[in-house]
Amino acid sequence: MAKHTAGPWTMVDRSKHGGGYRVRGGTGRYVASTVDNLAGGDEQEANAARIVACVNALDGIDDPEAFVKAARDAWWRLARLLDGTDVKPGGQFQAYGDTGRLRDLLTA
């Protein structure tokens, strides 16, 4: 598989010119654009912003899908250790302890 366009990626507002929103790669060339469908401009803007945020957040990670899965798994293991939570199928969890301790630790 070829490598993706280098970052950072940015969002370009073309909505005032009838072009919706575009995503520009670090090379300065457009790499994606929102589709002018039944969705309003706010949804198109949110979609473009999400693409940019996700690509930039995972820049330099060879396998983003595996990285995110490993991070989620680590999060649930940590939550279980600190707060006595139990992971349920599908990523749901049930808390048996004080989940506020985990939140406080991670936001400190």
Write the layout of secondary structure elements.
Blueprint: E1 10-13, E2 21-24, E3 30-33, H1 41-57, H2 64-83, E4 85-87, E5 93-95, H3 100-107
Antiparallel strand pairs: 1-2, 2-3, 4-5
What do you see in this structure?
This protein has 108 residues and is an alpha+beta fold. It folds into 2 domains: 10-57, no CATH class; 64-107, no CATH class. It has 3 helices and 5 strands, in the order E-E-E-H-H-E-E-H. The protein is elongated, with a radius of gyration of 19 Å. The model has no long low-confidence stretch (mean pLDDT 78).
| Percentage beta strand | 15-25%
Taking pLDDT < 50 over at least 5 consecutive residues as the criterion, the unreliable ranges are: none
Strand order of the largest sheet: 1-2-3
Count the domains.
Answer: 2
* Protein structure class: alpha+beta
Calculate the mean pLDDT score and round it.
78
Please give the share of residues in helix: 40-55%
Largest sheet: 3 strands, antiparallel
The helix/strand series, from N terminus to C terminus, equals EEEHHEEH
Tally the beta strands: 5
The coarse overall form would be: elongated
Number of helical segments with 4 or more residues: 3
Separation of termini?
40 Å
Provide the gyration radius in Å.
Answer: 19 Å
